[in-house]
Amino acid sequence: MIEMEDRNKLIQRRIEKLEQFKSQGMKIFRNDFLPDSFANDLHSEYDGLELEKLLDLDKTVSIAGRVMAYRSFGKAGFMKVKDFTGQIQVYAEKNSLSYEDFKLYKKLDVGDIIGVEGSLFKTKTGELTIKAKKIVLLTKSIRPLPEKWHGLQDKELRYRQRYVDLIVNDEVKETMVKRSKIINAVRDFMVNNRFVEVETPMMHKLVGGATAKPFVTHHNALDIDLYLRIAPELYLKRLVVGGLERVFEINRNFRNEGMDLKHNPEFTMMEFYVAYKNYRFLLDYTEEMFDYIFESLGNKERKLQFGENEIDFSRPWKRLDFFEGLKTIGGLDDDVINRDKAFNLALELGKSVNKNMSIEKILAELFDALVEPKLINPTFVIGYPVAISPLARRNDENPDITERFELFISGMEVANGFSELNDPFDQKERFLKQLEERKMGDEEASMYDADYIRALEYGLPPTAGEGIGIDRLVMLFTNHDSIRDVILFPLMKDKDDE
RNA sequence: GGGUCGUUAGCUCAGUCGGUAGAGCAGUAGCCUUUUAAGCUAUUGGCCGCAGGUUCGAUUCCUGCACGACCCA
């Protein structure tokens, strides 16, 4: 401990200041200062007033926040104080403060959290400023903040110590506020359409509802292994069986997979189910939902700048058949279904395919490599094969494909939905097929869920369901190409750190 | 999992064709009552990511490891 203090003189200096305050009888870490105003509210209320009118008002206000800038010259000086709404300037001069308060002011550091009471005025340059009559130290910050101009650049530190990132990089807070607004808009839209928000288990006894490897945990009292859910799908559809004919859930899913720009092991999904509708309804409904989000964010253009692309969300969005896409965009020949040919091409593209894989799964790999990156403007891909859609209803005209779609924007899968498979006999067969694939070594195949089959046997009404990746949605609306920039605390490996 | 690059002061970054390091900001001391990255003067601060190897000598070259960024699977 002492060694560490020796090592960092800056922290040591600040601790000494704190000790000094304490020995002078000053209250430390006090919580009895109650501000009556917020920084940005003062700006919106008084920025428009002339200096003279401000002085006539003689308005006394109190604010609290963190010292973000400190400019002192002898017997006076300025500080920028930041609260959750924004910043406001404070002017401190010797003649307007008590001896003790001025002494305190001279000892303040950038990063300290203070309370200020004073009157409003404007400086020479017209900036609204509080002339301090009283300054109170609320919390002493003993660690120095990053540099005022460049802020915190190191991405690793920004993710690991998000609290520091938030203090110095305003953009982070803006992104997270926008994230909150987007989620609120989505929730609003669902509730307005008479959906009920529910919460289903995060800990599952069986893996299902998606194609992914799960995290495993253990319940001690029951002595059973449990899986963190990879999707809520099978529970939500049980609810539709039970008569909750419009349900949705906004919550975390967990997938035990690699991490990259677009994947974090825990991520947020909005999943919803609506009875007596089919996938065609979902296409329109999704477009409407985006409209609603744009509306809530005050975006009238229905366009987003994302990296180098300007994405146009004008309706209707493009519909693209899976097999057509492979041919027209992926450049494959008409005999695309030729298994050996597809397999070799996938190998050439460096995809990790193996001989046990179904042709459909290989085609999905090819689609992923050749088509998806080219889908910039919102595109619904429809007509996915049955073999890679174990929970989707078959198409009436062509039983090899499903009434399923995925939504791609800027090459990212943003949503996945379909008419739900409600035939318990077909579902049973598909589960068995998944079991086979699992036995062949596919760790992503789902498990046989007998209770879900039982639920279907009671009768699931014709239903449409969809999942929307919230993190990716936020990425689009905030122009971030890394999922880590829209998640407050992305998963990071441990690092030796005293 | 593979490849490329990175890791130097609290922060942002230089640098050393191998001889144990430098700037700006922050800090400290001083001057300064309207500043806006305030200014001026002086000044403190470093296991140069970790572990090996080569060498008289490594922060620098080599190998391995850790963590991260980006690209690919």
Strand content: 15-25%
Q: What is the rounded Rg?
A: 29 Å
Structural class: alpha+beta
Looking at the structure, what is the overall shape?
elongated
Given the structure, what is the number of helices?
Answer: 16
Your description of this structure?
This protein is an alpha+beta fold and 498 residues long. It has 16 helices and 18 strands. The chain has helices spanning 2-7, 9-23, 39-46, 51-57, 99-107, 155-160, 162-168, 170-192, 233-241, 279-296, 322-328, 339-348, 359-370, 424-439, 450-459, 470-478, and strands at residues 60-73, 76-83, 86-93, 113-122, 128-139, 196-197, 203-204, 216-219, 224-228, 246-254, 266-275, 303-306, 309-312, 318-321, 379-382, 404-409, 412-419, 463-469. The strands form 4 sheets. An 8-stranded mixed sheet has the order 6-10-11-18-17-16-15-14, sandwiched between helices. The chain has a 5-stranded mixed beta barrel with strand order 1-2-3-5-4. It has a 3-stranded antiparallel sheet with strand order 7-9-8, with no helix packed on it. It is elongated and about 85 Å long. The chain starts with a helix and ends in a 20-residue tail after the last helix. Mean pLDDT is 94; it is low at 1-6.
